[in-house]
Design a protein that fits this description.
Elements (H helix, E strand, L loop, with lengths): L2 E9 L3 H12 L3 H10 L1 E9 L2 E8 L5 H9 L2 H11 L2 E2 L11 E2 L10
Antiparallel strand pairs: 1-3, 1-4, 1-5, 2-3
């Protein structure tokens, strides 16, 4: 059974950087997509309002954030992508040093009929 995570992060408040960030995400590098799939990410979407982003990840049973970090750390292209993306991103005030995407708390879910 798949699980879903919702995470958030801010972009720097610069319209040119935001436009460039969107452009990069129209066609992410194939190595980045492959790394996500190897880690067990089934689906991912990122939404943006102003500078605030919301990422929704659907993952399979083999997924863990620890395994994903390990897979990413061993892939030079993923590390390059993450370094490039950090040019556009900024930590949220609640973030600890080194943290980027933070988990959001689900406070409502519409019950099925």
């Amino acid at each position: 059974m798949n699980r879903r995570y919702c995470l958030t992060l801010d972009l720097k408040d610069d319209p040119a950087l935001i436009a460039d960030y969107k452009k990069h995400h129209k066609s992410i590098w194939p190595e980045v997509a492959a790394s996500m799939k190897r880690a067990g990410v089934v689906d991912m979407e990122i939404y943006l309002l102003g500078t605030r982003m919301c990422m929704i990840m659907e993952v399979n049973d083999k997924f863990s954030f620890e395994v994903k970090r390990k897979i990413d750390s061993e892939d030079a292209k993923v590390r390059e992508w993450e370094a490039l993306m950090w040019k556009f991103q900024q930590s949220l005030p609640q973030a600890k040093p080194g943290e980027k995407w933070l988990f959001m708390e689900r406070i409502f879910k519409l019950a099925p009929n």
